[in-house]
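Tokens help. Consider this.
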Amino acid sequence: MSAESKPNHHTKNPRTDDDIADLTKGLGSVSIFSKPPNGKTDAPASVQRFADLLASNKYRNIVILTGAGVSCSAGIPDFRTPGTGLYDNLQKYNLPFPEAVFDLNFYRNNSAPFVQLASELWPGLKHSPTVTHSFIALLEQKGMLLRNYTQVCTVISWLAGVSEEKIVECHGHFRTASCTTCPAAFDGNECKRIIVTEKRAPSCKKCGGAVKPDIVFFGEGLPVRFHRLLRQDMKKADLLLVMGTSLMVGPVNMIPDMVPKCCPRVLLNRELVGSFLKRGGVQTRRKNYDNTRKDTFCAGDCDENIRILCKLLGWEEDLDRLNLSTQLNLPNQRNDG
């Protein structure tokens, strides 16, 4: 073949300036990094999936259900973790059974174990919000939080900056107090002073009965606010986030099954619990929001997964700034924030 007959690859279909501009524009959307700069490839697939949900901007009525596990890194033990949980470490109180510390009849006859425990765990004295608590406050700031239902009496969410209107304290709180015999109210600050400083149960000024903070003991009904808001919140919920709970105490453990079938559910926990657990794994029979994805289970430590999540979303600086602003600055405080 002569030189004249050889195809000229350099002159065939010559590129115009417009072609080059289009090519340059296309290359602008191609990453040249072997790993995304935000570390997405290092994140667990489940956390990445959760991040994708939040990044979609579709969810503005997120309902969060939290248990004692979200406060462990603040130094507050959960109830049932073997070895470190509260129920495994109550031997020093000589209780007939661990749950007696929250038994109403037992308290009326022997208030000392609860008083000692309450004086150590009273909110706002020793324990600062964790990054998980700060994440809840951050969701509210971003207009995405409908409600935080918390099972923890030592509520730190409000210390983290979550507004009182957004919190439902399912098992009561320490801010107010009342008599266990008659319905008389008792000043909350005075109750705190007596229990924390004097290490004794206050006495009712009307009947002389034992006074306790308005947390829910076994045998007592849940707060009116819980029942008033629950059904309407479940109807509005467009995403459910469950964190740090064994889902063993009713009726709060029924909340994950009350959201609409079109509502995606995310569990941040050390283990599968409740209806997230079916046949040894994440359940598959529940119709999800797009008919393709299952419930999302982010296994492991809540704080660690929340930090990874916020890094993926570009929220980490906001999370740290918010968490730092709510610390009590105690030298022995253990916190990942």
